[in-house]
Design goal:
With about 475 residues, the chain is α/β, with parallel strands linked by helices. The chain contains 15 helices and 23 strands. α2 runs antiparallel to α4, α3 crosses α4 and α4 packs parallel to α5. The radius of gyration is 23 Å and the shape is globular.
Length: about 475
């Protein structure tokens, strides 16, 4: 059965269907999904525009009930939905279930936020005048999400958009439509009025472009590549719309001489290789001081030997396949580039065969790298990391900040002095001390600096900055 697009409360077939393939077993077709056209996208935008007046003035209990019901169903079906996610994206079953739980928690959080909508009442500088400061929904919000977190990222964009009274046109990554379709189906059955949430699956060059071209989309939130993010920004400036971008990362993980070696290694392996390195918060630069460098490299090699790379759904698998052939080609191209640049491939980097045909790659670790190499400057988005040797903490901090990106930054140290200084001086939106660079809570802000992000933060109460606009009203007594 072909899963359809949702436009104005109706499931619409679209012109053609595309297949969703399991990267752990390319013979396994996860499902077939209807590909929306540009006209479908325009119909979805019109539906969202028409639904906005009523939804923006809907009661907080109505919004709360729908988001809470959605959260409850996601959490009740976490094993089923987590398995679907792992099957279509390739992250391990434990990671797939964990991401699904996070999506449920996000909807639960924003269900609560519906009941906590607040403003300010202030006295005016003029006598007998009152001032009210309130937040109102922006309007029609376009949501464009990537393939690497196919349920969590849609959740942390859709939930606040609906919570604050916006209507939505949602385009998920074509590579992983299953999880997105499931979350929209849950919201639809939870009682959303027609037109409030519209799903248009398909090509970014078609559906995404129609969204960018429309003057009736008042805000766009995008997570994906830096190149596409720039196009979103340019199109949004033309229409004077709000835009929010989460893009690339080249996240550093500093290891100082005083670090607990086992803590440093576990954090580094998790940062670089879990979720097959396909996280914008993944660390692919290990910046290691001289006194611990050799011990760190040796311990990393031993730890990497024990990693289990296999079918994402198999018990015991620690790292699943790369998401598709295109991404696998990019990973292996960068491994070749690293060798050409003079870095030493100390471990891994080999294509692997398993019981089923899939995109299996052994995690790769380079040593003798410099921060000027392409493998240290450009986002690879795969299980490939480099070790850069530095003299001391000061050089480590300088190298960590020497990047056009600024999403996440980590340090392994037992020094309170260095940890405190690093938290203050790391040029990143998120800083981790003795923890992996990837992994944040659902109720706190997410986002970066420099080339990684643009606009206000996602998640938590900070999401209100993007999904609402501020109104100041004066009343004469």
């Amino acid at each position: 059965m072909v899963q359809k697009n949702l436009i104005d409360g109706e499931w619409i077939a679209g012109g053609e269907a595309f297949r969703n393939i399991n990267p752990s077993d390319t013979n396994d077709v996860v499902g077939e999904y209807a590909r929306a056209s540009a006209d479908d996208a325009r119909l979805a935008i019109a539906a969202a525009k028409a639904a906005f007046p009523a939804w923006s003035r809907s009661g907080i209990l109505e919004r709360h009930a729908i988001l809470r019901k959605t959260a409850d169903e996601i959490l009740a079906r976490k094993d089923e939905l987590g398995r679907l996610l792992s099957r279509e994206e390739g992250k391990t079953l434990a990671e797939g279930i964990g991401e699904t739980v996070r999506a449920g928690q996000i909807f639960d959080f924003f269900a609560g936020e519906c009941l906590r909508l607040a403003g300010e009442v202030l006295p005016s500088a003029r006598p007998n005048i009152g001032v009210e400061i309130t937040r109102e929904p922006v309007g029609v919000v376009g949501i464009i999400t990537p393939w690497n977190f196919p349920i969590a990222i849609p959740a942390w964009k859709i939930a606040p958009a609906l919570c604050y009274g916006n209507t939505v046109v949602f385009k998920p990554a074509e590579l992983v439509p299953g999880s997105s379709w499931a979350i929209v189906d849950i919201l639809h059955r939870a009682g959303l009025p027609k037109g409030v949430l519209n799903l248009v699956m398909g090509k970014g060059s078609v559906v995404g472009q129609a969204m960018l071209d429309s003057p009736d989309i008042h805000a766009i939130t995008f997570t994906g590549s830096t190149g596409t993010g720039k196009r979103v920004a340019l199109a949004s400036v033309e229409h004077n719309r709000k835009y929010q971008l989460e893009m690339g990362g080249k996240n550093p993980f500093v290891v100082l001489d005083d670090a607990d070696l086992s803590v440093a290694v576990e954090a580094a392996v998790n940062s670089a290789f879990f979720s097959t390195g396909q996280r914008c918060t993944a660390s692919s630069r290990f910046i290691v001081t001289e006194g611990i460098h050799d011990r760190f490299v040796a311990a990393m090699g031993e730890r990497m030997k024990g990693l289990v790379i296999d079918d994402a759904l198999k018990a015991g698998t620690q790292i699943g396949p790369v998401v598709d052939q295109s991404q696998l080609n990019q990973d292996t191209d960068y491994i070749a580039i690293g060798r050409q640049e003079g870095a030493k491939l100390a471990f891994g980097g080999e294509l692997l065969k398993r019981d089923t045909p899939g995109f299996y790659l052994q995690p790769a670790l380079f040593t003798e790298a410099t921060n000027a190499m392409r493998i240290s400057r450009e986002e690879i988005f795969g299980p490939v990391a480099s070790v850069i040797r530095v003299k001391d903490y000061d050089e480590a901090l300088s190298v960590a900040n020497d990047t056009p990106f600024g999403l996440s930054s980590g340090i392994a140290t037992t020094s309170l002095k260095h940890a405190t200084h690093f938290k203050r001086n790391a040029e990143a939106g998120m800083v981790m001390v003795n923890l992996p660079t990837a992994g944040v809570d659902f109720h706190v802000p997410f986002g970066g600096r420099k080339g990684s992000s643009h606009g206000s933060r996602e998640q938590g109460r900070y999401a209100a900055e993007f999904y609402t606009t501020v109104k100041t009203a004066y009343t004469s007594a």
